[in-house]
């Protein structure tokens, strides 16, 4: 830490309670009151150094020779700073450090202690020492922190801006090349090493990383920290480093972000050092405004944690919309657990904030459509999407949406229009397989048995039956919760798939037979290979036979299903006609339409 010793005389003052006296033995002829502290001093050492004190003494001089009393209630730094000013005027030894130079510089300016009242006056001394302080990273941070005590005066003298510009210049430069000392937990790092007989015995300094300055500047107050971030951004710092510094600062001063408690229990113990929710809210809103806007610079996981905390702190709508837009910009990088944001409050319907997820998804799709319009192309299945959003990106989002729907589908308060809106937002080409959306639909139908037949039909139109895997098709064919039309579609497409597979097997079998005939003219070694291929052909034919049996079984099941349906329809019609003739109410509405699968 930088240090400047001023004065040469020994200590000539003593403090008794709220009284500060000079021990020279001469009677005091002036009393200076600053707050509750009184300084009993002599006029000559003071007026010879301070233009303001000279003026005040001349205005308050009394003809009766009584002691002059001055009140300096507005002096920067208060009584503590004036104590050092008095020592300077009397020539008493004291040390000028980064912790007191700012208050002394402001106090000397206030007291008009310029070179007009003596060479090497306090204004000159403190200004020269400040220039030395600005050359050192650690000392500059300490000086900037003390500016809080005399902020208006420090701003007027441009001390704050000079501190911030000095720190920003050092943070944007390569510290490994310039070898600036760095503050770690409030202390300077000892990078030196002892040498004995030419051998270094000290520990080697750790290599510097891009985040070396995060903790040092995190001790600054929010207004000063904000100005520093804006300065390093103007200085050309990489957005990733700026984002990292803001993440560090947010985690340090927003405890709600680090609390991993259940959303059902929003109460938590507050320590004396925990910022109030109002302070945390103000800090969070500032952090959101300062975060770089480029995609991928800030982790999506952190943005979602910030959004969840913003919901708890009830930030402004503009801040929430800002965060939702940032998450939507990089939704393809999110995980399901982070997207399950609980609903906050007592009048909510669903367990999770589904509306928030809908808005985030809308932001993503809006950007996807804008990028597609900027680079025109034909949007077809199995064709890559040209533009900023690739097919892989929107496919990941589609899987994320399907997983999210499966997670929130059991909620009985999850309304059908919201489910339909979320599922339908994803284009069909973004789902190579329909297993995810089928699983979500199945869970939703199970949790909402009161849906009408029309609603069941509508919800099943959200999936493409042709894209179901074999396992999903088998499950859907036996799913009693699905409408009959959907089951018929599943069976139809499964039959087409089996026919295609059988045709493929026959094609391979014919090619292998031709290959076997051609190899008959080759030697004994070729005959052995033909025998091996012959056994493979037999295996293939056996497999084809099995597939044909499965296909015939499915046909029989389908025919039984259709016949049963017809019988019930005929029975219900005849029953209705009989009831109408006898005057009894019709019971057709109670006739079952489909036997349940077991």
Automatic annotation (TrEMBL):
Domain NPH3 stretches: 211-497
Residues in coiled coil: 537-564
Domain BTB: 28-98
Pathway terms, separated by semicolons: Protein modification; protein ubiquitination
Region (Disordered): 577-598
Any matching Pfam family: BTB
SMART domains xref list: BTB (SM00225)
GO biological process, one term: protein ubiquitination
Keywords of this entry: Coiled coil, Ubl conjugation pathway
Entry similarity comment: Belongs to the NPH3 family.
Protein name: BTB/POZ domain-containing protein At5g03250-like
Protein species of origin: Nicotiana tabacum
């Amino acid at each position: 830490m930088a240090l400047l010793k001023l004065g040469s005389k020994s200590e000539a003052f003593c403090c008794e309670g709220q009284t500060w006296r000079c021990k020279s033995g001469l009677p005091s002829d002036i009393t200076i009151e600053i707050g509750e502290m009184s300084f009993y001093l002599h006029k000559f050492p003071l007026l010879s150094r301070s233009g303001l004190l000279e003026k005040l003494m001349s205005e308050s001089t009394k003809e009766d020779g009584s002691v002059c009393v001055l009140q300096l209630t507005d002096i920067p730094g208060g009584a503590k700073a004036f104590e050092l000013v008095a020592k300077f005027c009397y020539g008493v030894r004291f040390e000028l450090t980064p912790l007191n130079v700012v208050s002394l510089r402001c106090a000397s300016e206030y007291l008009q202690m310029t070179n007009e009242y003596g060479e090497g006056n306090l204004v000159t001394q403190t200004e020269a020492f400040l220039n030395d302080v600005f050359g050192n990273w650690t000392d500059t941070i300490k000086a900037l922190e003390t500016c809080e005590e005399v902020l208006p005066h420090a701003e007027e003298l441009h001390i704050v801006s000079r501190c911030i510009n000095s720190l920003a210049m050092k943070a944007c430069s390569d510290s490994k090349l310039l070898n600036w000392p760095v503050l770690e937990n409030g202390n300077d790092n000892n990078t030196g090493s002892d040498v004995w007989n030419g051998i270094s015995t000290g520990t080697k300094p750790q290599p510097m990383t891009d985040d070396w300055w995060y903790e040092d500047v995190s001790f600054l107050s929010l207004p000063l920290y904000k100005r520093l971030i804006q300065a390093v951004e103007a200085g050309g710092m990489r957005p990733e480093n700026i984002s990292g510094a803001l993440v560090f600062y947010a985690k340090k001063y927003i405890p709600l972000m680090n609390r991993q408690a259940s959303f059902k229990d929003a109460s938590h113990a507050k320590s004396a050092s925990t910022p109030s929710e109002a302070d945390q809210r103000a800090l969070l809103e500032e952090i959101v405004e300062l975060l770089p806007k480029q995609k991928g610079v800030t982790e999506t996981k952190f943005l979602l944690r910030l959004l969840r905390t913003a919901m708890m702190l009830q930030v402004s709508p503009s801040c929430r919309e800002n965060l939702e837009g940032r998450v939507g910009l990089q939704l393809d990088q999110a995980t399901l657990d982070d997207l399950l944001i609980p609903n906050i409050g007592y009048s909510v319907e669903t367990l999770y904030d589904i509306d928030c997820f809908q808005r985030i998804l809308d932001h993503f799709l809006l950007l996807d459509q804008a990028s597609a319009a900027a680079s025109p192309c034909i949007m077809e299945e199995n064709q890559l999407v040209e533009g900023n959003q690739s097919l892989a990106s929107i496919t990941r989002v589609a899987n994320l949406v399907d997983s999210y729907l499966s997670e929130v589908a059991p909620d009985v308060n999850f309304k059908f229009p919201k489910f339909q809106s979320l599922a339908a937002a994803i284009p069909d080409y973004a789902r190579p397989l329909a297993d995810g959306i089928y699983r979500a639909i199945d869970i939703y139908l199970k949790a909402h048995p009161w849906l009408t037949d029309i609603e069941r039909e509508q919800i099943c139109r959200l999936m493409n039956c042709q894209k179901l895997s074999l396992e999903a098709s088998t499950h859907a064919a036996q799913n009693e919760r699905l409408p009959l039309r959907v089951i018929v579609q599943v069976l139809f497409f499964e039959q087409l798939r089996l026919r295609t597979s059988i045709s493929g097997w026959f094609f391979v079998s014919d090619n292998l037979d031709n290959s076997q005939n051609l190899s008959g003219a080759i030697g004994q070694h070729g005959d052995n290979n033909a025998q091996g291929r012959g056994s493979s052909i037999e295996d293939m034919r056996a497999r084809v036979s099995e597939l044909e049996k499965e296909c015939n079984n499915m046909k029989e099941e389908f025919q039984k299903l259709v016949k049963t349906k017809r019988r019930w329809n005929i029975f219900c019609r005849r029953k209705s006609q009989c009831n109408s003739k006898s005057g009894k109410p019709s019971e057709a509405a109670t006739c079952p339409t489909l036997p349940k699968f077991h």
